[in-house]
Amino acid sequence: MSETLTFIHAADLHIGAPFRGLRALSDEWARRLVDAIPGAWDRVVEAAVSRKVDFVVVSGDIFDSVRASYRDYLRFFDGLNRLDAEGIPSYLCTGNHDPLSLWQQDFFALPPSATMLAADRPDFALYERGGRPLAVIGGRGYPNKVWSPNENIAEGITRAAAIRALGPRAAEAPFAVGVLHTGLTFDPVKAPTDPVALLRAGFDYWALGHIHKRWVNDERAPRIAFSGCIQGRDVRETGPRGVNLVTLAVDAPPKVSFIPTASVVWEKVRIDVSDCTNIPALVSKTMRELFAVNGDASCEMMVSRIILTGATSLHEVLGRPGVLEEVRASLNDAYSEFYCDSLIDETTAPIDEEALRAEGLFPAVFLRTVDRLSEDVEEQIDYLQEEYLARNVPLTAALSEKKARQLTDEAARLVLDLLLQGGDDR
Q: Most buried among 5, 43, 65, 207, using CB within 10 Å?
């Protein structure tokens, strides 16, 4: 049977980070969120111990701030010390949030089995099991908060360079793992590097940090990967969060599986309430949808931004002062493990276009104008582009035919909704 190597790839712990954009919380939810990030690190350690992995890699941004507190250091180093006690080495590098030059060196010393890769040069370590060289670890961290655009963070980090640096015993190791905090090609500002060059460097797996979303270069043979952050901090970091469990075997592609570590998951949920005829029905449907979303979240506690959509007779009711906030409070009272931070009304009033056309009043004229504009998609796109430019709003990409029709439809619904406000008094 061929030899194997198993390790956990974690990144972007951001211990000490605040949770952003939240409304006033209950005492219980405030406590949950304060403990969520350090608690996620505890679960990383527990996953390593329970699975008896060979080692743990942490690819930068361990702390959220260069001024991390003593308590933050204590929580992180408690985890490293537990790994050390279990005989599990750890290999670390710093990121742009916690550059090595600004670490609080007087707070703690690394345990004997923990290796901090250098930040001023390529650095290498050799992992041995039972006295036999098993893996070369190569990488480097951030020396300062800003990486020079004239320097490639991956330059000189190759398997050949590792053997030269570590000596002939390193050549006996069947595996090699790279560790970097890099924007790769996703972020051109934060130490970008060429994935093709990484693939040519002779490493079996590159454990990367910085991008908070889990990503692998090839699902069938993942050799470059971001594990994502271990705990989402706001609604931009939705879905399950965790670490990669990596298994390397001789003459076989790496195997990568996901281990969830977040105690609180964030979700953005759009709910069509067009079939709801009263507020209790709306609340009931919303709760059903939240439970359905939570079923795929690998986490019991959930913070959500809920967007109500659809043409509904409740549109006017939802627009009354205080109603949305009352509905949000009702949702938050319904189940203690879910918290609705924001409830957004994007519903529209039901509109009988045929009746409006038959009336022959201004709404009918407006609908005919929309029909004419919709017939000529190129004119539609030209018009929208001119409107964007006139308002100095940047276009992130060329408008597609589908997007142009969508914008026109949304605008038409909005105008009709405004025209018809007031019911029979219009």
A: 207
- The residue behind tokens 């022959």 is 360
Q: pTM for the whole thing?
A: 0.84
- Phi and psi (nearest 5°) for 86? -90, 5
The residue type found at 234 is: D
Tell me if 93 sits within 8 A of 242, measured CB to CB. Answer: no
Q: Is the pLDDT of residue 36 over 60?
A: yes
pLDDT of residue 355: 67
Neighbouring CB atoms inside 10 A of 336's CB total 11
**Helix (H/G/I), strand (E/B), else coil: 268:** strand
Whether residues 278 and 167 fall in one domain: no
Domain that holds residue 268: 264-345
Taking Cα atoms as reference points, which of 78, 95, 80 lies closest to residue 11?
95
Residues 6+ apart with CB under 8 A from 217: 195, 199, 223, 224, 225
DSSP string, 168-210: HHHHT-SEEEEEEE--BTT-SSSSB--HHHHHTTT-SEEEEES
- Write the pLDDT tens digit of every residue in 216-271: 999 999 999 999 999 999 889 999 999 999 999 999 999 999 999 999 999 999 99
Would you say residue 115 has pLDDT above 80?
yes
Give the pLDDT band (50/70/90) at residue 424: very low
Q: Which residues contact 247 (CB under 8 A, 6 or more apart)?
A: 4, 5, 6, 254, 255, 256
Residue pLDDT, tens place only, 163-198 = 999 999 999 999 999 999 999 999 999 999 999 999
Q: Determine whether 97 is exposed, middle or buried from the number of CB atoms within 10 Å of its CB (0-12, 13-18, 19+).
A: buried
E-assigned strands of 34-75? 55-59
In this structure, are 13 and 53 located in the same domain?
Answer: yes
Cβ burial of 288 (10 Å; 0-12, 13-18, 19+) is: exposed
Residue type (1 letter), 31: R
Residues in CB range of 24: below 8 A, 6 or more apart: none
In this structure, the answer to whether residues 160 and 212 fall within a common structural domain is: yes
147 and 244 assigned to the same domain: yes
Same domain, 32 and 158: yes
Give 420 or 203, the one with higher predicted confidence: 203
DSSP notation for 203-216: -SEEEEES--S-EE
Calpha distance 383→391 (Å, rounded): 13
Strands of 239-349 (E only): list them.
242-249, 252-260, 264-272, 301-309, 338-345
